[in-house]
Amino acid sequence: MDVAVLVKQIPDPDTPADFDPETRTLVRSGGLVLDDSDSYGVEMALRLVEQAGGGEVTLVSMVPDGESSGLRTALAMGAAKAVVVSDPALAGSDALGTAKVLAAVVRRIGADLVVAATESTDGYTGTVPVQIAELLGLPSVSFARHVEVDGSGLRVERQTEGGYDEVACPLPAVVTVTAGVVEVRYPSFKGIMGAKSKPVEQLGLSDLGIDPGEVGAAGARQEVVSIEPVGERKAGEVVVDDGEGHRRILALLEEWKVL
Amino acid sequence: MAAMNRIVVLAEQREGRPLTVALELVAAARRFAGDVDAVTWGAGAAEVAGELGAHGVRRCFSLGDLDGALAGPRAAAAVAGGLGAGELADAVLAATTYDGRDVLARLSVRLDRPVLTNVVGLDDAGGALVSSHAVFGGSRVVRARFTGAGPALFLVRPKSFAPEPTGGGAAELVELDAPSAGPTDAAEVVARHVGERSGPSLDDASVVVSGGRGLGSPEHYALVEELARLLGGAPAASRAIVDAGWVPYAYQVGQTGKTVKPDVYLAFGISGATQHLVGMRGALHVVAVNKDPSAPILGLADLGLVGDVHQVLPKLVEAIRARL
Description:
The complex is a heterodimer. Chain A is α/β, with parallel strands linked by helices. Helices cover 26% and strands 31% of the residues of chain A. Chain A has helices at residues 38-52, 72-77, 95-109, 128-136, 189-195, 216-219, 245-255, and strands at 3-6, 9-11, 17-19, 26-28, 32-34, 57-63, 81-86, 113-117, 140-150, 153-159, 163-170, 173-177, 200-203, 222-229, 237-240. A nine-stranded mixed β-sheet of chain A has the order 11-10-9-12-8-1-6-7-13. Chain A has a two-stranded antiparallel sheet with strand order 2-5. In chain A, a hairpin with a 3-residue loop joins strand 10 and strand 11 (163-170). In chain A, helix 3 packs across helix 4. Chain B is an alpha/beta fold. Chain B is built from ten helices and 17 strands. In chain B, helix 3 crosses helix 5 (98-111). The termini of chain B are far apart. In chain B, 57% of the residues are buried. At the A-B interface, helix 3, helix 4, strand 9, strand 10 and strand 11 of A face helix 3, helix 5, strand 7, strand 8 and strand 9 of B. Strand 14 of chain A pairs antiparallel with strand 9 (140-146) of chain B.
C-alpha cells in the first residue's frame, strides 16, 4: 500500500508573529519546522504500510520557496521520499487553492491512501484534506483516532461528540488523524543518516499543469478587510501561593455561587 | 433591508433535537436574510423542524436516515444541487464540528468557492457579509470577506452567537431523497460507540475544570476530574496533554479544540499558549494555578495563583469534599 502524507512546514510556533501591515499576511521570524500535528500522520502511515506488508510512504508538502529542511525528521522516521511543490505564484493561496495543488500532486504520484492532520497549527482551517478528497472523487474519514488495514480497505475509528464511530472505508481514500493518536517513533541513527540521501523531488506549477492565476493571491477569492486589537480581559490579581491559596479559590467559588 | 435573500444553515441534530450550535447559526442567519432554511439528517426530522421553526427557520430539508453513510458527501451534494428547488443560497452557515467541516469542504469544491473558517462574528457591510476571526489567542480580530460571485460559505465556531427563539410555528418539513454522491460516498459507519459520561457536557457546563502539562503525569488528571465532579462541572484539557495521549481529543479546549464560555473556568498547570486562550477567554470568571509566574494565563485570570498544582489541587479537593 502506497501512502501519501500531506505535511506542512510552518514557521516555528514559538517565535513571535505579527501581520505585515501592507499585505495583511502573517509574518514570523526564523526558519520553517515540520508542523508537530503532522508527525502523527507520518507515524500512522508507516504503521499501515508495515501492516499491509508492502508499499512506501511519500511526503507531500507545499511551500513558497522550495524549503525542505522541515521534512528531514519525517524522512528519518522512515518515509521513502518527498515531493515539494514550490512556486512564487503560490504565496497567498486560500485553502481551496492549496487543495487544488496538493490534489494534483497526489494524482501525479498515485497513492492508495492520503493521510493528513485534521488541521495545521498555523492556519487551522481544517478543510484542505476533505477538499482534496472531493477534488479526487474519493471517500474520506476525518478525525480518525485509530486506523487499521482490513482486507482491501480500512477500518477506522472516527471521533464523535460522545464517543466514536467504526467506519469501513474502501481504498483509495483520504484519512485525517488528530494529534496524540499514535506514539510517534524517534528516528534511529541509521534513519537520520539515511534521510540525507532520500529523494526530494521539486515541482513547480507548470509540472502540475496548474494555471498560476487559479492559485496564490491571484486565485484567492477571500480577502482580509481589517486587523484590529480586541479589548483585553480585565487583569485580576496574581498572588504567590503561601500554602493557603486553595482557600482563596474556595472563597471565590462561594462568591460566584458555585459552592 | 436584509443583506441577503436566503441563507441555508446546516442543522445537525441528536435524538430529534437540533444541536445548540444549529440554533446559534439560525439566530445569526436571521439577522442578514429574509429566508432562513435548514438542512438536517438523521431520525426525528419532524421534531427538529418544530424546534427550528420556533427559532425562525422557514423550511427544513431532511436528508433522512443516511443508512450508515457519512454526512459530508451527501449533505454537500444536496446543498450544491439547490435542495431540490434548483436555487443556490446566498450563503451557507455550518458549525466547526466533525461533520460540519466535512460538508463545507466538499461543498466548497462542488461550488468552486472557498470557505471562511473559524468565524466568531458576522456583520453586514453594504450587502455583503464580513466575518470576524479571533487570532493571537483572541487578542486581535481579523475581518475578512469573499470576493467574486457565488454563495458565501462560512464555518462558524460554536458559542459565537446566542440562540433567539421567535415563537414561530414548525418549519415546513421537506423530505429530500439524499442523492448518492458516487464513489465519495463509499465509507460506511458499521457501528457507533457512545461512551458513558456523567455530569454536563463540556459545551454546556457552567463550570469547567481544565488540566495541562503542569500536572506532570496522566494519573494526576484524576484530581481534575474529581474536582469537576464535585463542582458539577466538566473536565477539560490543554492540547499538550491531549497530544501526549492522557485524555481524548473531545476534552481539548482551544483553537484546535472546543470553545467554552462557562461561568467559571479553573485551569491547573496550563501555561496559556495563545492556542489555548482563544478557546476559553470568553469565560465569565477564570482561576489559574501555575508554578511559572510568567505563564500568560495568570494575566487574564481573576485569580492567578503562582504555586504547585500538586499542593493546591489536592487541598482544594479535600476542602470541598469536607463541605459536602
